[in-house]
What does this fold into?
Amino acid sequence: MKKILLPILSLTAAIILFGMAGCKPKNAGDATGSDAAARVYVPPGKYDELYNFVSGGFSGQVSVYGIPSGRLLRVIPVFSVDPEKGWGYSEETKPMLNTSHGEVPWGDQHHLDLSQTNGEIDGRWLFANENNTPRVARIDLKTFRTAEIIEIPNSAGNHSSPFITENTEYVVAGTRFSVPMDNENGDVPIDSYKKNFKGTISFISVAPTDGEMKLAFQLLLPGMNFDLSHSGKGPSSGWFFFSTYNSEQAHTLLEVNASKRDKDYILAVNWKKAEEYFKAGKGKKVPVKYAHNKYSDETHSATSTMETETTVIDVKDFPDIVYMIPCPKSPHGCDVDPSGEYIVGSGKLAALIPVFSFSKIQAAITNKTFDGDYGGIPVIKYEAALYGEVKKPGLGPLHTEFDGKGNAYTTFFISSEIVKWSIKDLKVLDRHATYYSPGHLMIPGGDTKKPYGKYLVAYNKITKDRYLPTGPELAQSAQLFDISGDKMKLLADYPSIGEPHYAQAVPAELISKNSTKIFKIDANKHPYATMGEKNAKVVREGNKVHIYMTMIRSHFSPDNIEGIKVGDEVYFHLTNLEQDWDVPHGFAVKGATTAELLIMPGETQTLKWTPLKEGIYPIYCTDFCSALHQEMQGYVRVSTKGSTVPISFSLGKNSDAADSLLKK
Ligand code: CUA
It folds into this structure.
């Protein structure tokens, strides 16, 4: 026991020591070069060079920054409700957050992957994972909106996700926590882990035309923790690599018990082979329950379908799908270089970085250079798969990206630095401190065949003294480096939203050229759309009242409504008639227990409201849309439950009753 604890304790000591040293970095002042300000300065009115999509961690959202300015362009609501845009509150978006557990209004969003064609970013979609209630989202980069969310059954802690294949054939999702499968009795003792707990890797197919996701099949694997992954490319096309830890199969005090073995594994998965078996009808269909939610830009509404079946392929029955490669010290990052030949495993507690060779892995498989098996899966001999080791690179390697010029860049959490090394000769070329303790790093296109290789952003886990203090909670920091020369240069340092993990970036042009500016009103197929002010109306159906309301600068139609009764379910169906870019209107009603809504030009959105008390309720536009934005308002009269006040609605005129009063 002592032997196991000692290295852990010394590591903890190292963390404390480095942490303390990190508080007062000696070279923080000279970290930025003299021309750094000019390198990140984007003049007013000019665009940034790249879009940077950054995961929001426990915020459940995705944020979009400009590089090199570090300007925040947008926060895209994905897994968490967002009262700013009404996401998850409007009737149209509520189904997007539906799961087999009911509505889940938050998420823990860790990794992002941009869609690829031939191993290069194609600018169509951005995929995002959710850890806690396993889900994968697809964001449409025309609208910067979440278009689809699929839940993943037989999974818990969707961490090695959502990583995609070279042509976006599949989004792949590995489970972090092994658990009993959904269709089995899960009411088992926790210490029956070895017997009852299993891991899965899910392959979600992506339709090439519209991106629609579908859970194709799942691979069943021995119980352990699956961490991160990346797809093969070039020579390793058709393969996927996953890091794993807890091959000890511990279920308690993992900090110690899952750190006992010197090596865990990287899984090499021949997904083409698995697909072949799946297409040949192999595997077992098992009953499960998972939500599949889709948003339509035609109906401006989402639908949620509960799916009931998945195909599970037990890899021990198909021995040529998965191979295990020993990898030192609880590997975290699992990164494939642009050539597709080298696979880098980053052991969280390792003092070296192993680089595996795909061709050597293939030779080892052919020659059966195995070292026994793990749960029925052949284990390739470490030396047989190894290209070489980067010696003494730093402490606590986590993630690696590539610049496309033969260099790799790895983050070191414990020694709080980024280390540049050569893939060919495995020599350390440069190192630069980060402030502090980086998790992921990102080079635009750095996990594809074609990295852009000019910038690198480190996403730091600890901020400490970098910004003005804001109480106990600090924003996490992102740091932009110039990697165009031999030495890394720190250019800028800016706060980020939530807790960023992985990120992606792409030259702006690839996305901006396709950006949607408005929704065409003529194409609006929302069942409650109001096509033109003249069609505005209020319709009572029992205790439900549907208000067909339009918005245009600067009024609602209708803006006076009477005949609503306490306890009615009132649906404000708001259609924004504008057809100009950047003219959204907002909507709010006093006492609304949900959120306000922001409705884009040509779009219809619905707010449900249940008034509890009679009275006059103002409504107004929440988005400053014109000089007379403050005039964009109206009134709703709510009468008692038994009232006989009829439904009436108007714009710009008094009611008949009011007119006759005025004449007297
Ligand atoms: Cu419409 Cu402000």
About this structure: The radius of gyration is 28 Å.
